[in-house]
Write a structure and sequence with these properties.
With 224 residues, the chain is an alpha/beta fold. It is 54% helix and 14% strand. Helix 2 runs parallel beside helix 3 and helix 4 crosses helix 6.
């Protein structure tokens, strides 16, 4: 695992990317109390994050998955393409059992939820800065369990077979969004959304739009 470029004794520069001002302020106040950490910038959307990445030269980015103009897994890939030496720690309101593995696969070095206490957030920051992966025991156990199930039940179809974009569409279907709304939110054509809907139904063995809607709602609320 790579470590961000950082001189001995240099404070770790942290870029906070979250669309909620209160979350950014809370994180900034937490970080500023630490002698080895500093906040080098704040961003509330994808455009600002990519711009701040160049101007602030962070060692680590604390990133929310839900932004108004981008889904976090896509932004993780964009940030990694632009600055592959920068580490990314996802701090999300999403269920870690669903999204932690996907965030790590996309290029993040850590994942924790906003329910975690401040001490856990600081622990995660320092662990990622040391070049290690951070996720909770709960998430790690879930990944191990899914790996075992895949080997035992290779034919079973679950959301694990969906791509990141298909997961985004499924999530929005579960929120009650129609095709046009999803297309506008994800900045894609309505016909492309319909293609994703068809792929999701095929992969999850769902026979019609009503079954897809029921599955999406149940999955969104139960994480299954």
């Amino acid at each position: 695992m790579r470590k961000p470029d950082r001189k001995i004794g240099e404070k770790a520069r942290i870029l906070i990317v979250d669309d909620h001002p209160l979350v950014r302020e809370s994180l900034k106040n937490l970080i500023l109390k630490e002698s080895d950490l500093e906040v080098c910038g704040e961003a509330e959307n994808r455009v600002q994050a990519l711009s701040m990445l160049t101007s602030s030269q962070p060692h680590i980015i604390i990133l929310d998955l839900s932004l108004p103009d981008s889904h976090g897994t896509e932004l993780i890939k964009d940030l990694q393409d632009q600055q592959p030496r920068v580490s990314i720690l996802v701090l999300s309101g999403h269920d870690e059992l669903v999204y932690a593995e996907r965030a790590i696969r996309a290029g993040a070095q850590g994942f924790l939820t906003k329910k975690e206490p401040p001490a856990k957030i600081l622990q995660a920051i320092r662990q990622v800065l040391c070049g290690e992966i951070y996720w909770t025991e709960k998430a790690a156990a879930s990944v191990a369990s899914k790996f075992t199930r895949r080997n035992r039940l290779p034919g079973k179809r679950t959301t694990d077979s969906l791509t990141d974009r298909e997961m985004q569409v499924l999530e929005r279907i579960g929120m009650g969004q129609g095709t046009q709304h999803i297309a506008a939110t994800l900045h894609i054509d309505a016909s492309t959304v319909e293609t994703y809907r068809s792929r999701i139904k095929e992969k999850l063995n769902l026979h019609n739009g009503n079954e897809l809607l029921q599955y999406a709602i149940r999955w969104r609320w139960n994480g299954s």
